[in-house]
Write a structure and sequence with these properties.
It catalyses: a 1,2-diacyl-sn-glycero-3-phospho-L-serine + H(+) = a 1,2-diacyl-sn-glycero-3-phosphoethanolamine + CO2. Helices cover 19% and strands 30% of the residues. The chain has helices at 2-13, 16-26, 35-42, 59-63, 110-113, 164-169, 173-176; strands at 80-82, 87-94, 99-103, 106-109, 127-132, 140-142, 147-155, 179-186, 189-196, 204-206, 213-214, 219-223, 228-233, 238-240, 249-250, 255-259. It has an eight-stranded antiparallel β-sheet, with no helix packed on it. The N and C termini lie far apart (55 Å).
Length: 263
C-alpha cells in the first residue's frame, strides 16, 4: 500500500510543469542564497569547484559547475572506454539479444531505450553501464571516447526519479524519461551515450558550441540536477574491467574497460 501511494505521488509530481518551475527557481538570483546549505547537505567539496561559492549566480550555476584543472585526469591507456561522469554504477553487463536484464529488478529493451532507432542493431549483444549521478556528484558529462558524433536525438518523455526508488518501483523509467542520445563513432566501433532526464531536471544541455569531433574526456553535455547516463558499446567490441560491479563508484576519466582490436 505504501509503495503504491509513493508511486502515485511520484506520477503526479513527475510532470514537466513541476520540473520547469523547479528549474526556473534554481536559475534565479534568489536561489544563490541556498548554495552553501545545498553544498553542506550533500557533502559537496566546494574547494574542488572552479570558482568560489559566492561567484556563482544561481543554484543551477553552481550545480553545473566545472572543476579545477587536473582534478579529473583522463586515463591515458590506448583503446580504453572512460567513464563520462562521476557516478554510482547501478547496472552493468552484457546486452542479451537486445535486452538489458535486471536493472533494479526490471528489464529494458535496446529498442525502447534508443527510441526504435535503426542503429539499435549495432548494440543487440553489446555491453551496457547504467551510471547514476546523485546531487553530490559533479554533473558535467564528457566524451567516453575520441571520435566523431554521427547522430544525435532528443526523445521527449517523463521526468520520473532515477534514484533507487524510481528504478525499482516505477515502470521502466530509463526508457520512459526524457533522453538525449549521442552516437559517437571511434576507431574500434561506435558508442551510444544516453543521457536520461529525471525528477526536477529542467533540461539536459549540450555544451555550446558542440564540436563534431570529440576528444576522450572532452566536454559533451551537462545535467541541471541529478540524473543517469546509460552507456552502450557495440556487439563484440568491448571487454569490461573485471573489478567493476553494481555498486562501484566511478569518476569521470576513469577506465571502464578496453576495446578489442578489430579482426
Amino acid at each position: 500500500m505504501k509503495i503504491s501511494l509513493f508511486r502515485l505521488l511520484t506520477e503526479l509530481s513527475s510532470r514537466k510543469t513541476v520540473s520547469r518551475l523547479t528549474g526556473a527557481f534554481a536559475k534565479s538570483k534568489t536561489s544563490r542564497m541556498l548554495i552553501p546549505r545545498f553544498a553542506k547537505t550533500y557533502g559537496i567539496r566546494v574547494e574542488d569547484a572552479e570558482k568560489a561559492v559566492h561567484e556563482y549566480a544561481s543554484l543551477n550555476d553552481f550545480f553545473t559547475r566545472r572543476l579545477k584543472d587536473g582534478l579529473r585526469p583522463v586515463d591515458p591507456t590506448p583503446d580504453t572506454l572512460i567513464s563520462p561522469v562521476d557516478a554510482l554504477v547501478t547496472g552493468m553487463g552484457l546486452i542479451k539479444d537486445g535486452l538489458i536484464v535486471n536493472v533494479k529488478g526490471q528489464d529494458y529493451t535496446i529498442e525502447e531505450l534508443l527510441n526504435h532507432s535503426p542503429r539499435m542493431i549495432n548494440y543487440k549483444n553489446g555491453f551496457y553501464y547504467v551510471l547514476y549521478l546523485s546531487p553530490t556528484d559533479y554533473h558535467r558529462i564528457h566524451s567516453p571516447v575520441t571520435g566523431v558524433i554521427v547522430e544525435k536525438e532528443h526523445v521527449a518523455g517523463k521526468v520520473y526519479p532515477v534514484n533507487d526508488f524510481g528504478l525499482k518501483h516505477m515502470r521502466r523509467v530509463l526508457s520512459r524519461n526524457e533522453r538525449l542520445i549521442t552516437y559517437v563513432q571511434h576507431e574500434r566501433g561506435e558508442v551510444a551515450v544516453v543521457k536520461v532526464g529525471a525528477l526536477n531536471v529542467s533540461s539536459i544541455q549540450y555544451v555550446s558550441p558542440l564540436p563534431d569531433a570529440l576528444e576522450r574526456g572532452g566536454d559533451l553535455a551537462y545535467f541541471e540536477f541529478g540524473s543517469t547516463v546509460v552507456l552502450l558499446t557495440e556487439t563484440g567490441t568491448f571487454n569490461s574491467r573485471s573489478d567493476l560491479s553494481v555498486g562501484s563508484k566511478v569518476r569521470m576519466g576513469e577506465p571502464l574497460g578496453t576495446f578489442k582490436l578489430k579482426a
